[in-house]
Amino acid sequence: MFDVLDFGKYNLYIWLSYSISFTSILIYFIIIHVRYKKASNLLKSLKNKKS
Amino acid sequence: MINYLANPNRFLNFIKPIEFSLGVLSVLFIFIGLYLSLFNSPEDYQQGDTVRIMYIHVPFAWFASSLYFSISIASIFFLIWKHPFADIIARSIAPLGLIFSILTILTGSLWGKPMWGTWWVWDARLTSMLILCIFYFAYIGISNAFPRKIDGSKPAAILAIVGMINLPIIKFSVDWWNTLHQPASIIRFDGPSINQEMLIPLVIMLLGFLFMSIFVILKNIKTNLILKKYQSELIKIG
Amino acid sequence: MNINFKNILIALIEKEFKSYLRSINNLTNMIVFMIAIIILFPLTMGPSEEKLTLVSNAIVWIALIISIIPTLDKIYIGDFKNGWLEQYYFSPLLLEIIILIKCFVFWLFLIIPLSIFIPIFSILLNIPFLIIFWNIIIFAIGSLGFCLIGSICSSLTLGTKSNNLISPLLILPLAIPIFIFGNGVVEAVKSNYDPLPNLYLLITVCLILLVISPLISAYSIKIALTK
To answer: Does the CB of B118 have a partner CB in chain C at under 8 Å?
Structure first.
């Protein structure tokens, strides 16, 4: 049933491994970037309130 | 140099110029590694193309164990010298290590199904990798489980040091026991036994993931330092 | 806002959802317990494939059931201690219906997420995919019956001093039909017979429980409240 997804030389397992790995790493990148932005905005707003 | 960098502000100033270039380097190396591993490297004579999963499975496995080792070293620093920066470093490494260990098990299962015919087998290396994954979950869980996050640092540090016993088992499990997993072929006493054409893409992927890990860890350290500064500013305001 | 049946129902369901969202502790306790059992079994039995395939299905089931029981025990304790059960007793909605809703939300929010872990643990123990599929179906139906039995038993032990884990003694005998019919489905799938008759019997047991469990639980709760 999964043979139809064999594109050329690369069978399903290679596709799944590479795509799952890199997608999850990209999602993690986005998460830490959003976290960094939220933290720096938080600190910036506190500094603005102080000054 | 460690004493110089142990001050968070000096650390932040130190890494400011190298951060962007680290990111660029990591993307470059990973892309080159992907091209080489998917298109330009030879097939294995028995496994065919499925061997290409090795080019991501091996880096993930190496980094899962090495990052745990780094967490243990940082925890030792934290317990002996009681420097809070060591605790921040350990907490910054942990999520990435968790993701790497989960991906190791996933890619390993996806590689094992065509190669050995089974998704999972309870042999020494796979079980110890699963234990490493559980240790990562436990580390992250216990460091965030206390009402004041700072209280969780010491228990988490002790947990990280206790879990160090797992790392030699992971590394030497394929030598000590009769396992289904392939024996060590890169870091051996006689030198690598892997083909040269397969070694080059593997090394490039390893370097790419190394730069990526350092980039991610530095970003996490920055975020955690900002959060800590925010908390101390809040306390100062009252 | 009209005080009618539908609004009270929706408000009740929302309250239960929020209380479970706040204590995500329950769910993680169950998951950690399951992981412990599933890892301990192959490590203590040795990794030989033949021994594992004989018992792997039973291991997954035992892990699920044993990890549900402590949480099931506490389904009414919180509401009993902070007085909500008395409000339910005096509300315009029948206590039986409220119990039914509580059981449903408990099942939906705390038990169904466990069924995400069934495929993961079954792959760890090398259970074939067809049996995993039937395991999920049996678990979805059987766990509803299990929750209803748990509501009977925890309402019986409401007034006792806490930390008495006598509810397994009460739950397990009553839950024997669920185990027997669930096992019947899996055996039928393994030997290529039709699994549907046993599945229908399982559904029958759960439907009977759906009717009698609120009645018995409401009666025991009234006894516990008026003591």
So the answer is: yes
What is the total count of domains within chain A? 1
CB contact under 8 A, B49 and A21: no
What the block records as the tokens of C132 is: 């995993």
Could you list the pLDDT tens digit for every one of the 238 residues in chain B? 777 788 888 888 888 888 888 888 888 888 888 888 888 777 776 767 778 888 899 999 999 999 999 999 999 999 999 889 999 999 999 999 999 999 999 999 988 888 888 888 888 888 899 999 999 999 998 898 888 888 889 999 999 999 998 898 888 877 777 777 777 777 666 667 777 777 888 889 999 999 999 999 999 999 999 999 888 888 888 7
- Range of A33's domain? 25-51
Residue of B nearest to A8 (CA): B49
In a domain, A10, yes or no: no
- Please answer yes or no on whether A36 and B216 come within 8 Å at the CB atom: no
> Position of tokens 């000590």?
B176
List subunits contacting chain B, requiring 3 or more Cβ pairs under 8 Å: A, C
Q: Which residues in A lie closer than 8 A to residue B56 (C-beta atoms)?
A: 17-18, 21
Residues B178-206 as b/e (b if ≥16 CB within 10 A, e otherwise) read ebbbeeeeeeeeeeeeeeeebeebbebbb
What Å distances lie between residue C31 and C26, C35, C64, CA to CA? 9, 6, 9
Residue A5, domain member (yes or no): no
Contact A13 B53 (CB under 8 A): yes
